[in-house]
Design a protein that fits this description.
The chain is globular and about 45 Å long. It has 101 residues and is an alpha+beta fold. Strands 2-1-3-4 form a four-stranded mixed beta sheet. It has three helices and four strands.
Length: 101
């Protein structure tokens, strides 16, 4: 089962391993840098972690940023944060225009 399928198009989330101190710190830093726009989701259960990293084996030990259904992981997460913030603003504006119609 692909984990990214459950993430809506206009959602920006970062997944991290709940037991990993480095991952907790890095994911918290990403959320703070995004001014709390990006949602932080821990992977706590061993089974969910295994399923998740079967889909994204190169991301093991790193936070994973999902821009909609597109995963970004390893050291590319931090440069992608400004883009994620701008994208979230775009999604919010798009939702405002859709609601007005």
């Amino acid at each position: 089962m692909k984990q990214s399928i459950i993430i809506p198009k206009n959602k920006i989330a970062i997944y991290y391993q709940g037991y990993c101190t480095k991952c907790k710190f890095l994911s918290k830093m990403v959320v703070v840098l995004s001014l709390y726009i990006i949602e932080r989701i821990p992977l706590e259960v061993d089974e969910s972690i295994q399923l998740f990293f079967e889909d994204y084996p190169k991301a093991k030990g790193y936070p994973i940023l999902f821009l909609g259904r597109t995963p970004i992981y390893n050291y590319w997460v931090f440069p992608a944060v400004p883009f994620a913030i701008v994208l979230s603003w775009f999604y919010k504006l798009q939702m405002l225009f859709i609601q007005d119609n």
